[in-house]
């Protein structure tokens, strides 16, 4: 059965093409910055948005049909899996990501849900082998069911915690069975609506405990992938504990989990936290915690997580600059945690959106490589800190300068007469030149 009959395999046709179902910038086998674009970008399909979400919003029902011709939920799950691999093949996506409940619907009991997961895991494994596709990461949906109304790992009720742990245990097992390269914790409802009813310290202790147990269990069953936390400041809860990269790093260090977890940075979550995407990536990179990316973009005029397909090349360029500077992806990749707008409701729109997102990142990779080869921006930054390479600066960095020595140095100077311009506008113009003029 072919689900997307009107659409052929999308090919690279270069920038002269007028074919909307072609890549202009993503040429998978072309080498950019020392590796093929395929290896640099490691694109992944998000099962939840692409295969499941029908475009419902707070004001209206779904606009697109994701039933895949099925008449019951398990038939739908099976058809969905076949459709997912057809879509990945046609878009040349090598990876996918899922929540447990995306691939198989929740049953009436935990054991029924687990049996359903087992059945679909066998099917996915077969399809992965047949089609040469890989699982970038798996996760558990511990936020959709009403039992998680007050949180999962941070729920005030220990029974809810136990249920979440059981669900995560199974999600880790299927991720391991499918050779997943990663496992994600996104704190869906791990936060609070009001401190009047919340013991924040206790909730965070519990979350750390759950993460420690998960890592230990996963390693004991042979999971060799990376663990990630995906920061997000709010939505669905007013405050989410994994607010941003810096907050997550502090949490991991407090509980001694920093060796076990890296970060999965999402563009729209960065902007919700009042940062830009590059800032969140830089914090992760500077702390040796860069792991993976949820590729999307928000709308600066809206205060919520719009999960739009990323098309802003300035953003993708600065993102790929950070990725290259971090040494590239190891087990992570670019997962399109993105959905078509509710009005873009046809199957063709899904393809056009992935093409747009993949091309925006392919172009971003090409431009990031140009920034590095051009060298002016990196040289400017290096030069800006030149006073630290010798003399008093070097002694401070080495930790050998004393307060008394610095006082004597400052007294002798009288005042600082050596400040350089930050040249922001010049550097922004260099960016424009690199992006648009050569
Ligand atoms: C929600 C979000 C999730 C995670 C996985 O904002 O980004 O889809 O990526 O649970
Ligand atoms: Co995400």
Structure characteristics:
single chain; 438 residues; alpha/beta; two-stranded parallel ribbon; globular; binds D-xylulose; binds cobalt (II) ion
Account of the protein in words:
With 438 residues, the chain is an alpha/beta fold. 47% of the residues lie in helices and 11% in strands. The chain is built from 16 helices and 14 strands. The strands form four sheets. Strands 7-6-5-14-13-12-10-8 form an eight-stranded parallel beta sheet. Strands 1-2 form a two-stranded parallel ribbon. The longest helix is centred in the last third of the chain and has 28 residues. The radius of gyration is 24 Å and the shape is globular. The site of cobalt (II) ion (CO) has 5 residues, from loops.
Please count the beta strands (DSSP E, at least 2 residues each).
14
Structural class by SSE content: alpha/beta
Helix content: 40-55%
Given the structure, what is the number of helices? 16
Give the secondary structure arrangement, pairings included.
Elements: E1 11-12, E2 22-23, E3 31-32, E4 35-36, H1 37-41, E5 43-46, H2 47-52, H3 73-91, E6 95-99, H4 100-103, H5 110-131, E7 134-139, H6 158-177, E8 182-185, E9 191-192, H7 200-220, E10 226-229, E11 239-240, H8 245-254, E12 261-266, H9 267-272, H10 277-286, E13 290-294, H11 313-325, E14 334-336, H12 347-374, H13 376-384, H14 391-398, H15 403-413, H16 424-437
Helix pairs in contact: 3-5, 5-6, 6-7, 10-11, 11-12
The structure holds D-xylulose and cobalt (II) ion (CO).
Overview in brief:
The protein has helices spanning 37-41, 47-52, 73-91, 100-103, 110-131, 158-177, 200-220, 245-254, 267-272, 277-286, 313-325, 347-374, 376-384, 391-398, 403-413, 424-437, and strands spanning 11-12, 22-23, 31-32, 35-36, 43-46, 95-99, 134-139, 182-185, 191-192, 226-229, 239-240, 261-266, 290-294, 334-336. It is of the alpha/beta class and 438 residues long.
